[in-house]
User: Which sequence fits this backbone?
């Protein structure tokens, strides 16, 4: 869960808006244990790091309602896949922890049920609710999110750059090895998520905009002249030695921590390393490569409700009243080391200025797409970027447009 695109693909890191009906933990009246007695337990699948916060909420729920909640720990990388294709003798959980990127697939396959979030949606940051929205319905209770920003070594670059060119100029003035670092997933793959803010700033967002201002999920916005401009921009940065497949996420953080670049595009997962390096730093907006703001992706974690639960009312109550409680939300976000999705929980996290800075920028972002078929789309998208950055094509725009045409054919 320490890399941005990894967060998307394994659903471990991608716009709406609440009078709250989530009870405050100090003032909410407790239900009588005999008010809804049942022998059937609610089963929650989660990873190890979030299980203590969930267990605390589960114990309180059981005390209030008489319904047992069993918290079962799973390996995060396979948690959603195990839910989607369970073993023949395995009963599915009632509630599942997941990243929002798998929502479309789970809805398509009839595996999760919508949630009545309308009454509590305003309690959460809008971008996090949007991540768990699909085809007009809400499908999850978010609790944490992550996004990219520009981390700046303020000793090497006293002023935050507004544009990519300003960042390059400041980097060269600092006389460091690299003017700016954008790390990829590994030495053979670019990072779609890390490069997307620059792509969007050139006017080539993943989806086109419908006449009513909403995203047209059936029409890509990455093609045409803006897409060509981005392809040529990638080629130019590669030719200049700025973007390289050899600069992985791990290489990038090592170079930045060593003081070899004034700028690093990264997320909250690298902040501990940066603090340990003893650098003076600032968390700034990502500089735009084109005429538009560099709008990046946001990945959201949350809980979804199994469509096959035998206790839909009790499971929904546990989700909407207990897992959505601000104190539980705060504990879950702290376990993630990510900004909280709940507005009140976010205020409780104000002691961590780094998370507050990332959250402020993340609220200007867009959720990573959660439509079915996204894993294959990420692969083709990254392959086109790899080919351009690795200079394996003499026609960057043609390579890019061929990828966009293929993807458009898939989504209809």
Assistant:
């Amino acid at each position: 869960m320490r890399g941005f695109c990894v967060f998307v693909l394994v659903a471990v890191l991608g716009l709406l808006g609440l009078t709250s009906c989530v009870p405050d933990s100090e003032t909410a009246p407790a239900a009588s244990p005999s008010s809804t007695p049942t022998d059937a337990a609610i089963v929650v699948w989660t990873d190890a790091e979030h299980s203590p916060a969930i267990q605390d909420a589960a114990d309180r729920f059981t005390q209030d309602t008489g319904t047992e909640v069993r918290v079962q720990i799973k390996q995060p990388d396979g948690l959603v896949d195990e839910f989607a294709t369970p073993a023949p003798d395995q009963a599915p959980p009632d509630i599942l922890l997941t990243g929002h990127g798998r929502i479309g697939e789970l809805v398509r396959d009839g595996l999760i049920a919508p949630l009545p979030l309308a009454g509590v949606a305003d309690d959460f940051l809008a971008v996090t609710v949007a991540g768990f929205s699909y085809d007009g319905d809400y499908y999850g209770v978010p609790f944490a999110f992550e996004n990219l920003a520009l981390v700046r070594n303020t000793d090497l670059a006293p002023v935050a750059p507004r544009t990519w060119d300003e960042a390059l100029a400041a980097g060269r003035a600092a006389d460091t090895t690299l003017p700016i670092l954008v790390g990829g997933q590994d030495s053979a793959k670019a990072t779609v998520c890390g490069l997307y803010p620059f792509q969007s700033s050139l006017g080539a967002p993943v989806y086109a905009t419908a006449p009513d201002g909403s995203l047209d999920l059936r029409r890509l916005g990455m093609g045409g002249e803006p897409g060509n401009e981005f392809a040529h921009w990638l080629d130019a940065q590669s030719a200049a030695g700025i973007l390289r497949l050899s600069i992985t996420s791990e290489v990038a953080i090592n170079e930045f921590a060593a003081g070899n670049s004034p700028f690093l595009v990264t997320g909250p997962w690298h902040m501990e390393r940066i603090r340990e390096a003893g650098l003076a730093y600032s968390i700034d907006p990502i500089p735009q490569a084109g005429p538009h703001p560099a709008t990046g992706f946001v990945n959201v974690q949350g809980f979804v409700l199994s469509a096959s639960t035998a206790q839909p009312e009790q499971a929904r109550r546990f989700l909407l009243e207990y897992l959505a409680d601000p104190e539980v939300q705060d504990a879950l976000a702290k376990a993630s080391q990510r900004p909280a999705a709940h507005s009140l929980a976010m205020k409780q996290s104000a002691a961590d200025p780094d998370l507050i800075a990332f959250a402020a920028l993340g609220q200007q972002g867009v959720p990573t797409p959660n439509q079915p078929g996204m894993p294959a789309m990420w692969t083709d998208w990254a392959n086109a970027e790899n080919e351009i950055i690795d200079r394996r094509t003499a026609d960057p725009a043609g390579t890019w447009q061929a990828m966009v045409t293929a993807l458009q054919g898939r989504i209809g």
Remarks:
- DSSP finds 16 helices and 15 strands in the chain.
- Residues 6-38 have pLDDT under 50 and may be disordered.
